[in-house]
Amino acid sequence: MSGSILDFVPLWTGILGLGVCLYVLLDGFDLGVGILFGFMPDTASRNLVMNSIAPIWDGNETWLVLGGIGLLAAFPLAFAIIIPAVYFPILVMLLALVFRGVAFEFRYREADHRTFWDYGFGIGSTVATFAQGVVLGAFIQGFKVEGRHFAGSSMDFLTPFSLLTGVALLFGYGLLGAGWLVLKTEGPLQAQARRLGRLCLIGVVLGIGAVSIWTPLMDADIARRWFSWPNIAFLAPVPLLAGVTTLWAWRAFGGKAEATPFIAGILLFLLSFLGIAISLWPMIVPHRYTLWEAAADPNTQAFLLVGTLFLLPVILMYTGWSYWVFRGKVRADEGYH
Predict the structure, then answer these.
(1) pTM of the full predicted structure?
(2) Domains in the chain, number
(3) For 265-306, how does the pLDDT look when each residue is reduced to its tens digit (9 = 90+)?
(4) Is the Cβ–Cβ distance between 210 and 166 less than 8 Å?
(5) What share of the chain is helix, strand, coil (3-state, %, to 5)?
(6) Which of 27, 96, 182, 261 could be joined to 252 by an S-S link, Cβ 3.0–4.6 Å?
(7) 308: domain range?
Protein backbone atom coordinates (compact mmCIF):
# COMPACT_ATOMS: atom_id res chain seq x y z
CA MET A 1 0.00 0.00 0.00
CA SER A 2 3.04 2.27 -0.15
CA GLY A 3 2.12 5.65 -1.63
CA SER A 4 -1.67 5.16 -1.37
CA ILE A 5 -4.08 7.24 0.65
CA LEU A 6 -4.41 4.35 3.10
CA ASP A 7 -0.68 4.08 3.77
CA PHE A 8 -0.42 4.21 7.55
CA VAL A 9 2.99 2.51 7.59
CA PRO A 10 5.06 5.72 7.98
CA LEU A 11 2.88 6.80 10.91
CA TRP A 12 3.11 3.42 12.63
CA THR A 13 6.85 3.36 11.96
CA GLY A 14 7.12 6.72 13.72
CA ILE A 15 5.05 5.50 16.68
CA LEU A 16 7.08 2.31 17.01
CA GLY A 17 10.35 4.20 16.64
CA LEU A 18 9.24 6.73 19.27
CA GLY A 19 8.32 3.93 21.69
CA VAL A 20 11.63 2.11 21.25
CA CYS A 21 13.64 5.32 21.44
CA LEU A 22 11.93 6.58 24.61
CA TYR A 23 12.25 3.17 26.23
CA VAL A 24 15.98 3.01 25.49
CA LEU A 25 16.56 6.53 26.82
CA LEU A 26 14.27 6.47 29.86
CA ASP A 27 14.55 2.91 31.07
CA GLY A 28 18.12 2.99 29.82
CA PHE A 29 19.24 5.56 32.34
CA ASP A 30 17.55 3.84 35.29
CA LEU A 31 19.00 0.48 34.23
CA GLY A 32 22.30 2.33 33.97
CA VAL A 33 21.86 3.59 37.52
CA GLY A 34 21.36 -0.04 38.55
CA ILE A 35 24.53 -1.08 36.71
CA LEU A 36 26.53 1.63 38.52
CA PHE A 37 24.80 0.93 41.84
CA GLY A 38 27.43 -1.57 42.98
CA PHE A 39 30.21 0.97 42.47
CA MET A 40 28.82 3.28 45.15
CA PRO A 41 31.14 3.45 48.19
CA ASP A 42 28.69 3.13 51.11
CA THR A 43 25.10 2.54 52.17
CA ALA A 44 24.25 6.25 52.31
CA SER A 45 25.39 6.69 48.70
CA ARG A 46 23.45 3.63 47.56
CA ASN A 47 20.31 4.95 49.26
CA LEU A 48 20.67 8.28 47.44
CA VAL A 49 21.18 6.45 44.14
CA MET A 50 17.99 4.47 44.75
CA ASN A 51 16.07 7.61 45.71
CA SER A 52 17.14 9.31 42.48
CA ILE A 53 15.08 6.88 40.39
CA ALA A 54 12.45 5.72 42.90
CA PRO A 55 9.61 7.99 41.72
CA ILE A 56 9.95 7.26 38.02
CA TRP A 57 11.71 3.96 37.34
CA ASP A 58 8.71 1.67 36.85
CA GLY A 59 6.84 4.16 34.65
CA ASN A 60 9.71 4.10 32.17
CA GLU A 61 8.86 0.51 31.26
CA THR A 62 5.55 1.69 29.80
CA TRP A 63 7.43 2.30 26.58
CA LEU A 64 8.61 -1.31 26.40
CA VAL A 65 4.99 -2.44 26.46
CA LEU A 66 4.06 0.13 23.80
CA GLY A 67 6.90 -1.04 21.56
CA GLY A 68 5.97 -4.72 21.88
CA ILE A 69 2.25 -4.19 21.34
CA GLY A 70 2.90 -1.76 18.47
CA LEU A 71 5.07 -4.34 16.71
CA LEU A 72 2.43 -7.04 17.15
CA ALA A 73 -0.46 -4.83 16.05
CA ALA A 74 1.04 -2.95 13.12
CA PHE A 75 3.68 -5.36 11.83
CA PRO A 76 2.46 -8.88 12.74
CA LEU A 77 4.72 -10.65 10.23
CA ALA A 78 7.79 -9.02 11.77
CA PHE A 79 6.57 -9.94 15.26
CA ALA A 80 6.04 -13.57 14.18
CA ILE A 81 9.61 -13.82 12.88
CA ILE A 82 11.59 -11.69 15.35
CA ILE A 83 10.13 -12.92 18.65
CA PRO A 84 10.81 -16.66 18.08
CA ALA A 85 14.33 -15.77 16.91
CA VAL A 86 15.16 -13.89 20.11
CA TYR A 87 12.79 -15.64 22.50
CA PHE A 88 15.51 -16.74 24.92
CA PRO A 89 17.21 -13.33 25.48
CA ILE A 90 13.79 -11.66 25.74
CA LEU A 91 12.78 -14.21 28.40
CA VAL A 92 16.03 -13.56 30.28
CA MET A 93 15.45 -9.80 30.02
CA LEU A 94 11.90 -10.02 31.39
CA LEU A 95 12.93 -12.29 34.28
CA ALA A 96 15.80 -9.93 35.12
CA LEU A 97 13.45 -6.93 35.06
CA VAL A 98 11.04 -8.74 37.39
CA PHE A 99 13.83 -9.71 39.78
CA ARG A 100 15.16 -6.16 39.66
CA GLY A 101 11.74 -4.82 40.60
CA VAL A 102 11.40 -7.29 43.46
CA ALA A 103 14.86 -6.35 44.73
CA PHE A 104 13.96 -2.67 44.57
CA GLU A 105 10.88 -3.19 46.74
CA PHE A 106 12.35 -5.63 49.24
CA ARG A 107 15.54 -3.70 50.01
CA TYR A 108 13.35 -1.16 51.79
CA ARG A 109 11.25 -3.74 53.58
CA GLU A 110 13.86 -6.30 54.65
CA ALA A 111 16.65 -4.35 56.29
CA ASP A 112 18.30 -7.57 57.51
CA HIS A 113 18.75 -8.78 53.93
CA ARG A 114 19.42 -5.42 52.28
CA THR A 115 22.84 -6.47 50.99
CA PHE A 116 21.30 -9.42 49.17
CA TRP A 117 18.64 -7.23 47.55
CA ASP A 118 21.24 -4.61 46.66
CA TYR A 119 23.19 -7.26 44.76
CA GLY A 120 19.95 -8.42 43.19
CA PHE A 121 19.13 -4.92 41.96
CA GLY A 122 22.56 -4.49 40.39
CA ILE A 123 22.66 -7.95 38.84
CA GLY A 124 19.09 -7.68 37.54
CA SER A 125 19.88 -4.34 35.89
CA THR A 126 23.07 -5.70 34.33
CA VAL A 127 21.52 -8.92 33.01
CA ALA A 128 18.47 -7.11 31.57
CA THR A 129 20.70 -4.62 29.79
CA PHE A 130 23.01 -7.27 28.38
CA ALA A 131 20.01 -9.27 27.11
CA GLN A 132 18.64 -6.17 25.36
CA GLY A 133 22.01 -5.63 23.70
CA VAL A 134 22.08 -9.23 22.50
CA VAL A 135 18.60 -8.81 21.01
CA LEU A 136 19.79 -5.67 19.20
CA GLY A 137 22.82 -7.47 17.81
CA ALA A 138 20.76 -10.43 16.63
CA PHE A 139 18.30 -8.03 14.98
CA ILE A 140 21.02 -6.16 13.09
CA GLN A 141 22.55 -9.44 11.88
CA GLY A 142 19.22 -10.71 10.62
CA PHE A 143 17.43 -14.04 10.94
CA LYS A 144 17.15 -17.24 8.97
CA VAL A 145 13.74 -17.04 7.31
CA GLU A 146 11.88 -19.46 5.06
CA GLY A 147 8.74 -18.01 3.57
CA ARG A 148 7.02 -16.14 6.39
CA HIS A 149 8.53 -18.07 9.30
CA PHE A 150 11.71 -18.05 11.35
CA ALA A 151 13.66 -21.14 10.29
CA GLY A 152 16.69 -20.99 12.57
CA SER A 153 17.43 -22.52 15.93
CA SER A 154 16.72 -21.06 19.36
CA MET A 155 20.43 -20.29 19.83
CA ASP A 156 21.06 -18.49 16.53
CA PHE A 157 20.99 -15.19 18.40
CA LEU A 158 24.21 -16.09 20.21
CA THR A 159 27.05 -14.79 18.04
CA PRO A 160 30.23 -12.78 18.65
CA PHE A 161 28.49 -9.73 17.18
CA SER A 162 25.46 -9.98 19.48
CA LEU A 163 27.75 -10.46 22.50
CA LEU A 164 29.63 -7.32 21.43
CA THR A 165 26.42 -5.29 21.23
CA GLY A 166 25.41 -6.65 24.64
CA VAL A 167 28.63 -5.39 26.22
CA ALA A 168 28.41 -2.09 24.32
CA LEU A 169 24.89 -1.48 25.64
CA LEU A 170 26.11 -2.06 29.21
CA PHE A 171 28.51 0.86 28.75
CA GLY A 172 25.81 2.88 26.97
CA TYR A 173 23.24 2.54 29.72
CA GLY A 174 26.01 3.12 32.26
CA LEU A 175 26.77 6.41 30.48
CA LEU A 176 23.13 7.49 30.71
CA GLY A 177 22.96 6.42 34.35
CA ALA A 178 26.09 8.39 35.21
CA GLY A 179 24.66 11.45 33.49
CA TRP A 180 21.45 11.10 35.50
CA LEU A 181 23.38 10.83 38.77
CA VAL A 182 25.42 13.92 37.93
CA LEU A 183 22.13 15.74 37.39
CA LYS A 184 20.45 14.48 40.56
CA THR A 185 23.25 14.31 43.16
CA GLU A 186 25.90 16.51 44.74
CA GLY A 187 29.32 16.32 46.38
CA PRO A 188 31.36 13.10 46.50
CA LEU A 189 28.57 11.02 44.94
CA GLN A 190 28.38 13.36 41.96
CA ALA A 191 32.17 13.24 41.63
CA GLN A 192 32.03 9.43 41.57
CA ALA A 193 29.32 9.58 38.89
CA ARG A 194 31.54 11.84 36.78
CA ARG A 195 34.44 9.39 37.00
CA LEU A 196 32.22 6.44 36.13
CA GLY A 197 30.67 8.44 33.29
CA ARG A 198 34.06 8.98 31.67
CA LEU A 199 34.90 5.28 31.96
CA CYS A 200 31.56 4.34 30.40
CA LEU A 201 32.10 6.88 27.62
CA ILE A 202 35.35 5.15 26.67
CA GLY A 203 33.48 1.83 26.48
CA VAL A 204 30.71 3.42 24.40
CA VAL A 205 33.18 4.87 21.89
CA LEU A 206 34.93 1.51 21.51
CA GLY A 207 31.57 -0.25 21.15
CA ILE A 208 30.22 2.19 18.56
CA GLY A 209 33.49 1.97 16.63
CA ALA A 210 33.49 -1.83 16.60
CA VAL A 211 29.82 -2.07 15.57
CA SER A 212 30.27 0.62 12.89
CA ILE A 213 33.15 -1.33 11.33
CA TRP A 214 31.61 -4.79 11.75
CA THR A 215 28.13 -3.97 10.40
CA PRO A 216 29.13 -2.99 6.83
CA LEU A 217 31.55 -5.92 6.72
CA MET A 218 28.61 -8.27 7.39
CA ASP A 219 26.42 -6.91 4.61
CA ALA A 220 27.46 -5.47 1.25
CA ASP A 221 24.23 -3.47 0.88
CA ILE A 222 24.92 -1.63 4.15
CA ALA A 223 28.50 -0.95 3.04
CA ARG A 224 27.26 0.50 -0.27
CA ARG A 225 24.67 2.63 1.53
CA TRP A 226 27.29 4.28 3.73
CA PHE A 227 30.36 4.41 1.48
CA SER A 228 29.12 4.80 -2.11
CA TRP A 229 29.08 8.24 -3.72
CA PRO A 230 27.19 10.55 -3.12
CA ASN A 231 25.80 8.78 0.00
CA ILE A 232 29.08 9.13 1.83
CA ALA A 233 28.87 12.92 1.52
CA PHE A 234 25.25 13.08 2.71
CA LEU A 235 25.75 10.66 5.61
CA ALA A 236 29.16 11.88 6.81
CA PRO A 237 27.55 14.36 9.28
CA VAL A 238 26.24 11.43 11.38
CA PRO A 239 29.64 10.03 12.44
CA LEU A 240 31.10 13.55 12.58
CA LEU A 241 28.35 14.66 14.97
CA ALA A 242 28.92 11.52 17.03
CA GLY A 243 32.59 12.45 17.35
CA VAL A 244 31.80 16.02 18.37
CA THR A 245 29.20 14.78 20.88
CA THR A 246 31.72 12.38 22.37
CA LEU A 247 34.20 15.21 22.97
CA TRP A 248 31.39 17.33 24.41
CA ALA A 249 30.38 14.53 26.79
CA TRP A 250 33.99 13.97 27.89
CA ARG A 251 34.42 17.65 28.72
CA ALA A 252 31.03 17.78 30.44
CA PHE A 253 31.81 14.85 32.74
CA GLY A 254 35.15 16.44 33.57
CA GLY A 255 33.75 19.92 34.23
CA LYS A 256 31.13 21.44 36.48
CA ALA A 257 28.06 21.32 34.21
CA GLU A 258 25.27 19.18 35.67
CA ALA A 259 22.67 18.78 32.91
CA THR A 260 25.13 18.63 30.00
CA PRO A 261 26.51 15.09 30.65
CA PHE A 262 23.01 13.62 30.55
CA ILE A 263 22.04 15.61 27.45
CA ALA A 264 25.24 14.61 25.67
CA GLY A 265 24.61 10.95 26.50
CA ILE A 266 21.08 11.18 25.10
CA LEU A 267 22.34 12.82 21.91
CA LEU A 268 24.97 10.10 21.45
CA PHE A 269 22.24 7.45 21.74
CA LEU A 270 20.01 9.30 19.25
CA LEU A 271 22.85 9.47 16.74
CA SER A 272 23.50 5.74 17.20
CA PHE A 273 19.77 5.08 16.73
CA LEU A 274 19.86 7.15 13.54
CA GLY A 275 22.88 5.21 12.29
CA ILE A 276 21.10 1.88 12.73
CA ALA A 277 17.99 3.24 11.00
CA ILE A 278 20.06 4.43 8.03
CA SER A 279 21.78 1.04 7.76
CA LEU A 280 18.57 -1.01 7.80
CA TRP A 281 15.88 1.22 6.24
CA PRO A 282 13.28 0.24 5.07
CA MET A 283 13.69 -3.26 6.51
CA ILE A 284 11.89 -4.33 9.68
CA VAL A 285 13.05 -7.95 9.33
CA PRO A 286 16.62 -7.14 8.29
CA HIS A 287 17.67 -8.32 4.84
CA ARG A 288 14.27 -9.96 4.24
CA TYR A 289 11.04 -7.95 4.71
CA THR A 290 10.38 -4.22 4.43
CA LEU A 291 8.03 -2.28 6.69
CA TRP A 292 5.33 -2.35 4.01
CA GLU A 293 5.69 -6.09 3.36
CA ALA A 294 5.37 -6.88 7.08
CA ALA A 295 2.55 -4.43 7.83
CA ALA A 296 -0.98 -5.37 8.88
CA ASP A 297 -3.99 -4.67 6.69
CA PRO A 298 -4.62 -0.89 6.35
CA ASN A 299 -8.06 -1.25 7.94
CA THR A 300 -6.49 -2.93 10.98
CA GLN A 301 -3.85 -0.22 11.21
CA ALA A 302 -6.50 2.50 11.00
CA PHE A 303 -8.65 0.88 13.70
CA LEU A 304 -5.71 0.52 16.10
CA LEU A 305 -4.48 4.01 15.31
CA VAL A 306 -7.59 5.61 16.83
CA GLY A 307 -6.87 4.32 20.32
CA THR A 308 -3.11 4.77 20.00
CA LEU A 309 -3.33 8.43 19.01
CA PHE A 310 -5.63 9.02 21.98
CA LEU A 311 -3.46 7.21 24.54
CA LEU A 312 -0.04 8.35 23.33
CA PRO A 313 -0.46 12.02 24.35
CA VAL A 314 -1.81 10.86 27.74
CA ILE A 315 1.29 8.71 28.32
CA LEU A 316 3.56 11.54 27.24
CA MET A 317 1.80 14.00 29.55
CA TYR A 318 1.88 11.84 32.68
CA THR A 319 5.50 10.90 31.98
CA GLY A 320 6.49 14.54 31.58
CA TRP A 321 4.48 15.52 34.67
CA SER A 322 6.15 12.88 36.84
CA TYR A 323 9.60 14.12 35.84
CA TRP A 324 8.55 17.72 36.49
CA VAL A 325 7.15 16.95 39.93
CA PHE A 326 10.30 15.11 41.02
CA ARG A 327 12.79 17.52 39.45
CA GLY A 328 15.78 18.82 41.40
CA LYS A 329 18.41 17.19 43.56
CA VAL A 330 17.67 14.02 45.49
CA ARG A 331 17.94 14.29 49.29
CA ALA A 332 18.79 11.70 51.91
CA ASP A 333 15.60 12.45 53.86
CA GLU A 334 13.36 12.14 50.81
CA GLY A 335 12.74 8.91 49.00
CA TYR A 336 10.88 5.67 48.61
CA HIS A 337 9.30 4.11 51.68
Answers:
(1) 0.92
(2) 1
(3) 999 999 999 999 999 999 899 888 999 998 988 888 888 888
(4) no
(5) 75, 5, 20
(6) 261
(7) 9-325
